[in-house]
């Protein structure tokens, strides 16, 4: 069974996430990067292609050109992955899907909710695989957390706290990674809420299996002169009445990537932390605490199947990312991938951003959330 | 210099906090429990007196009786400590102060804000020492956190997150400790917000040296049939514009007493956690992280003076509690105790509870906070 | 039931352990410090007596004088506690026991094994309570660890690793605490091995319920000019054939008081760490890990009875110490205290020190250990 | 610049380490697996080739055949990687090197010291790159630890403690991974000492930059019926007189892969733990503790260059492994790789195993260590 061939959109010189997608896609040897529009500047795209060690002829600087040229080859790309800033997501996905090419996309789905709705229509009409790299849902112990909750280990969920503290935008936003994230023209309507708040939102729904139905948002811009939010507090209600808190910040000095989720039901509680991803803590009503560790026989089938090393040999962010590509490769080959985030998750995420931004701006208090 | 003589109000059979106050008060041998109205039931008070090993004649069942009898003795009590449920705080403090006896009181100051205002007048008129055992402000590393922030280590504070998760009221509230806390007649208008939320509030103001000026509260009652709140989310604004989040819950299964405070400024951040109280984590803008440990020479004078053991010999809750009694003993002997919580802190705490309860009930959104 | 009256031997100005014994003894209000020979210098003893706030007339500077004077009082001391450097232990204990006064003593029992043997005879002849404050065996979760092993939770013990790293003697040994510990005339034949290695030894036997029968010792003197050992590696065999490792050091820079014990059997393993004393980690063969936390209902009766606060309200070193005094008070009142270390443990400890010192000096390899 | 082409020896169906090498080698896209003798059984080798998605024609079952066939191709392999059990290492490396093919090999170098000496001669004569995957030396923060010590951050090293606890061989050794490790015919003369003790040994020398010159070994066989050691305690002396302890065990139930190293000098100390590999703890003499985190600007150039994600996005075992392949690829392209373990390290490792096994068997006490 041959490797699937991937074309990358974005990921040019200086990109953080381009190489991450490349590593993740190839980790299980089901996928191979063979082409890309790494930059709209031909020289830069060529340089990136060299750094990825692909055939120089397949480092394009124009998406329609790549789609056409690859279609013409016997060994052309099987799908594209979109890793450029948010405002590129819609046009890139549209072009690919309309050319009959499946799409893997970095999150969030688009730059605005309106774009996401448009994209949803395109995906529906195309009838092609489309998925989103909500990375954190690829961690084995996040899968385990979801499975345990689904199996009733916590009883009825009553409370969810999801936090995503970072500190790297505490000062002026300098450098390629920072600049576009604080620029409404490229990031879209959300700053912190769109960059990491949406991860927290997706994780909360993913782990609990519950949908948010109401929210109250307080987004702030702490760093002087910044145009988008950089510190977010959002209160949540879930469909079953459970209460929730979602905190995200990019000005909490010293926090690196401290995503953490805690869920509590009437029978138990659980805690997972991204910076120590290989353990899951489970609490029971009698005060007992169990630590579930990756690589042990205590993992359920979903988590076990997404673990590549024995217990105690830490896996991390790249492996979690790779788990999403593994699911996507399966999807392309015809296997179901029910936990792989798709356009519906993309729509929910964009609606979350739009709703939170508007509700906060209007000091609207509790507002319904639906999409 | 003789030990100060303490009379206890409350703390009868089955009390958790009575023995804690006794141990804390006596730990440094500056204070001695000699009398008490441990219960209004004479037999129960006598039994408690025996368990405390005090002179049986000084185990009273009536507060006026104790105040009169002790006044008549040459070796009568120097102050009372009030450890009974909230609704007793005002009448007990009033009786003592009006009899010329200083008061140490468990928090919160009273059961309602109106009572607190009345008490403030009484304290002012009496001109006698009155203090509140906001225990967590007695931890050496909380003092250190406060001192570091006051010295500018974090720069201008921008964000404060204080969380106080517990899980012990996840089920039916059974037992002496639980029952009164969920009963409005004894606890007052706040449940979780008054029991632990107010600790978190005091800690946030104490550590940062900043006052809350605005808040948005969402208090919930999760356990069916409960009359008071048991899960609280409160957003804060501080006087300098800093943003804040205060979370408190008593239904987060498996959480024991997970009070944690994090503060972030434009130059640094810090984290302190009550369940590992002997370390303080400091973050700097360059990603550097310093762990300050109790008992090392790195502690400032305030924290160092409140540490009884060398580094690595853990101190805990009882010692933190004792630090408040040490400050109070100093106050009685004429020394200043600027960091010991007093009636102003009591008023602010009760105003916090009242404001949060009302704002949440009315879904009022952001409301000003002042007292 | 009145409080037992304690006389202290040692604990003068600058003492660390004197105040610790005082706090620990009095914590449960079963015992009261009323007298002491805090120093052989009358002025210093008086100053210490003042700092302890005892009757100035009962701050003696001569042990026979104290024993005689206290005997003559109606409210004389019920026992003495010996907290002076090691070389005082034997003469002080002998004088007290021969005067009919029970003895609580800091560890190790004496300065040399020969002294310990002499003391054992005295204790036996006196027929009076004698106990040793091997503090760490007073921690509730150490009691829990012992109980779990005794109940077979780990199966047959195969391996024990006990480590006691400190760093405070990495440089010149300055200050009251350091000076006597590095002086053979006061500390005895062991340096680090006698100060902390013996704690590790006692803890290993206490937790496992197994006796060491053979050892191989490598003691080193790392700091130039020092006369006693400051870094110890000892291999152990237990009576059932289990293998053991005991490490103790006072030159591991940055380590505060990192005592840790791990025990492994054919069915499970456990880990306890003194610097986070309120949790006990249990491992099972299937890779499962349980965290047992102080103050939860999961504790057995022995540990539960030695816990004063609810879960999440940390107890520490002073409370563990107090648990030994609680046991000792019980003993004086006629209750059994089977887990309180006594003269047999003292003898074993001194034999451990002597055997390790000799075996290391002689590069003797494995030597039998018995007493 | 094209990818280097790798042929694998070993790594057939059921192999744990084969896929790990494949992922690690390819992670940076400098290397590509193209061929292999995955098994000496043709069907099994073909099946493995399919699982790796390589050209079926290049899944060989005979090493000479692979070497010949690949040499004949224009796109033949650039090097082999040896991932089979220890007893295959020498013959496989010999065949490759004699065919002019560079070798990457799993550790330990060979099954016996005699073999290692033979191999050293072969490598020297061949004049071709040969390296060993001592994985743990590839972790960025291990590199940082080494760099800090080399720069004098700890002063003169006095003490090193390296521990490698595992528990997975606590019971009967079942399954492909376990079976060969407990079989002298395949593992060689060391069990636990050769499987993981040698990792600890290499890490200690790597991090400190100091060579072991003397050792005392106590290897035990705990599980009944086992032929090789499964629990090891080794005392060390380093060339500068520093004292050391090396512990390794495979019967410590519940320990997964708890490799930990601590080094202490006269100015500071450091701690690194493999299961939380993205932090390094540094202690200074004043009790200060600094946590150095991967992905921050505080890392030196060597560690920074071996980090692929920003701080807080955990990297783990596979990425550490990949760092060794990155160094090896550089070596093949002509760049220096001074920290990549080579045949000298292999010889030292085998001498360590042989010396420890013999010294323990003979109860020889301290023995010199040299190679």
UniProtKB/TrEMBL annotation, chains A, B, C, D:
Gfo/Idh/MocA-like oxidoreductase N-terminal domain location: 5-131
Positions of the GFO/IDH/MocA-like oxidoreductase domain: 142-270
InterPro entries: Gfo/Idh/MocA-like_OxRdtase_N, Gfo/Idh/MocA_oxidoreduct, GFO_IDH_MocA-like_dom, NAD(P)-bd_dom_sf
SUPFAM superfamilies, A to Z: Glyceraldehyde-3-phosphate dehydrogenase-like, C-terminal domain, NAD(P)-binding Rossmann-fold domains
Gene3D superfamilies found in the cross-reference section: Dihydrodipicolinate Reductase, domain 2, NAD(P)-binding Rossmann-like Domain
Superkingdom as given in the UniProt entry: Bacteria
PANTHER family membership: CONSERVED EXPRESSED OXIDOREDUCTASE (EUROFUNG), OXIDOREDUCTASE
Name of the protein described by the UniProt record: Gfo/Idh/MocA family protein
Species of the source: Sphingomonas tabacisoli
Species classification: Bacteria, Pseudomonadati, Pseudomonadota, Alphaproteobacteria, Sphingomonadales
């Amino acid at each position: 069974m041959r490797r699937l061939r991937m074309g990358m959109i974005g990921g040019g010189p200086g990109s953080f996430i381009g190489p991450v997608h490349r590593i993740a896609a190839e980790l299980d040897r089901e996928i191979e990067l063979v082409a890309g529009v790494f930059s709209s500047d031909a020289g830069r795209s060529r340089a990136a292609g060299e750094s990825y060690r692909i055939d120089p002829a397949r480092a394009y600087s124009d998406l329609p050109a790549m789609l056409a040229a690859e279609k013409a080859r016997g060994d052309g790309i099987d799908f594209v992955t979109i890793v450029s800033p948010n405002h590129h997501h819609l046009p890139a996905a549209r072009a690919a899907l309309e050319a009959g090419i499946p799409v893997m996309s970095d999150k969030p789905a688009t730059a605005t909710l309106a774009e996401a709705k448009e994209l949803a229509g395109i995906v529906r009409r195309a009838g092609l695989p489309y998925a989103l790299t909500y990375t954190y849902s690829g961690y084995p112990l996040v899968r385990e957390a979801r499975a345990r909750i689904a199996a009733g280990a916590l009883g009825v969920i009553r409370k969810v706290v999801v936090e995503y503290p970072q500190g790297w935008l505490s000062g002026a936003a300098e450098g390629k990674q920072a600049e576009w994230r604080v620029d409404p023209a490229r990031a879209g309507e959300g700053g912190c809420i769109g960059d990491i708040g949406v991860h927290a939102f997706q994780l909360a729904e993913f782990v609990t299996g519950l949908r948010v139905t109401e929210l109250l948002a307080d987004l702030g811009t702490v760093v002087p002169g910044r145009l988008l939010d950089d510190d977010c507090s959002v209160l949540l209600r879930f469909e079953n009445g459970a209460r929730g808190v979602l905190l995200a910040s990019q000005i909490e000095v010293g926090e690196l990537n401290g995503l953490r989720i805690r869920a509590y039901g009437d029978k138990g509680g659980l805690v997972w932390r991204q910076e120590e991803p290989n353990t899951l803590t489970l609490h029971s009503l009698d005060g007992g605490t169990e630590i579930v560790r990756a690589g042990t026989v205590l993992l359920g089938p979903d988590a076990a199947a997404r673990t590549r090393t024995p217990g105690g040999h830490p896996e991390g962010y790249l492996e979690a990312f790779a788990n999403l590509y593994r699911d996507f490769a399966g999807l392309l080959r015809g296997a179901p991938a029910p936990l792989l985030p798709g356009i519906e998750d993309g729509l929910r995420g964009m609606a979350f951003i739009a709703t939170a931004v508007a509700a906060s701006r209007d000091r609207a208090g509790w507002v319904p959330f639906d999409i």
